[in-house]
Amino acid sequence: MPIFSEVEYDLLTIGNHELYVTEVAKQMFNEYAKKWGDRYLTSNVKVYNDATKQYEHVGATHRYFITKQGIRIMAFGVLFDFTGNSNASQVIKAKDMVKETWFQDAIHTDKPVDLFVLLGHNPVRQTDYANTFTTVWNEIRAVHKNTPITIFGGHSHIRDFAVYDQASVGIEAGRYCETLGWVSQSGFSKCNSGYHGAKKPDGKKLTRKATDNSTAPWAYSRRYLDWNRNTFMYHTSSNKNFDSQTGLEITQEITTARKDMNLGEVYGCAPETYCISCVPFDDPKNIFPGVIKPAVNAIVLNEARKDKARMIIGNTGAIRFDLYKGPFTYDDNFVVSPFRDVFRYIPDVPFDKASQVLAKLNKGTVAKREFASMPIARDDCVDPLIGALTLRDMHQERGIVRRQETITPGYATTDDWGTDGDDTEHTGIPNYSIPSYWESRAGFPTGSDPEKVDLIFFDFIEKYVLQDLGSGFTSDMVSCYINCTFTSQDFMLPYAKLMWQDNIDNCPISA
């Protein structure tokens, strides 16, 4: 948090990942919220306060503020109707939140409001089943018929721009840190707002209305920027003076932190690039048959039960990123598998019972930390193949920054305004559907099936496995397979040491 705290944000909000684990939720309440004050908006999320013995909003319910150019904004931060939180937190459904007194008071305020802002870990597309922005938008629009409402969303891991009406748009900027979403709006004047800035910032006039038949004064632009240094240098029209002193200091802090945590330590040389969904699920270059299954077969083994046949089941959503050809580092392990799911098991399950679980899981409810795996973009926040820049590198004088000329794989976005939103042109990446769960088998007798197996699975999906095994199987029968600290972050590193040692001192990287 100290590194992120050096960035000046106008508004922040909470996501579902802060709410799974009680300790993390408490940390957000006790530390993060205090740092950011009323800029940290958690309109429908509360955490249990041990001091007051009450559930209280983590941050502020809303924020009213005035920009330097005089625009008067009322903002709310709304998480989708998440239900996977621990009992340390409460997520209030949007339909209930909008009825609360504080919300009604906020939208009926006597203060002048030029713009409503909704932000949240929440899809912007109204047809998305997880979208609850629409509920809040409807409530605001019922009171403020013409006031613009701008929405900043997330959660579904896509680039998207959705038009709600002639005065309302929403943008979603990809996943993780590979996209910077840009949206701008013009039409404010001293006649309809408190705005006192330039009519045409930087000499450019926006001309595109939200809808083709719009009679409102508002015009917009939207852009999805690949998150990399060249993009930012191009758009700031600077190269020699691009790095600020604060930026250089933060870079050094990041570099030091990475060194202290040994994130650059190389464990192996990955011989291929293995993706989540750019090839079919059964393709050898898919990460599940290519890496995950052979790795768990080789590494996830209880020595005391090594003579037992075993079946290992996991949710595909636990694997979050492609694995690239080249050096496989300690950091890459977390990029690919960021969750600490403990391997649990039930010993000696009849094979005819265990063999039905995968199919039942894939037909049933998905265990969700987020949505199932989504298409992967190739423009990473930090290229995993390039080490941290040194201060010497950062101070080197650079020439003119040009746009990327070679078209590379990446996002090819279609949204409510068409296909011209991507700032850098890419060839689209194939996206094959994958199941919600995978299974691997090891220790089976040659040419036949065993009578019984050790059924191994992530603790995150334990309740679903028990449901699909049926009557006669209870949580009392489940225990840690290796030990209760061996998790989904602990099998790829030893596998890399075991299988990917060729060329480790001169490891070729992905082209």
TrEMBL record:
Q: Name one Pfam family in it.
A: Metallophos
The superkingdom of the source organism is Eukaryota
Q: Which residues form the Calcineurin-like phosphoesterase domain?
A: 11-158
GO biological process: one example: nucleotide catabolic process
What SUPFAM superfamilies does UniProt report for this protein, alphabetically?
A: 5'-nucleotidase (syn. UDP-sugar hydrolase), C-terminal domain, Metallo-dependent phosphatases
Q: Report the GO terms under cellular component.
A: cytosol
Q: What are the residue boundaries of the Putative 5'-nucleotidase C-terminal domain, all occurrences included?
A: 273-466
A GO MF label: hydrolase activity
Q: Which PANTHER family match?
A: 5'-NUCLEOTIDASE-RELATED (PTHR11575), ADL392WP (PTHR11575:SF22)
Q: What is this protein called?
A: Calcineurin-like phosphoesterase domain-containing protein
Q: Which organism is it from?
A: Bionectria ochroleuca (Gliocladium roseum)
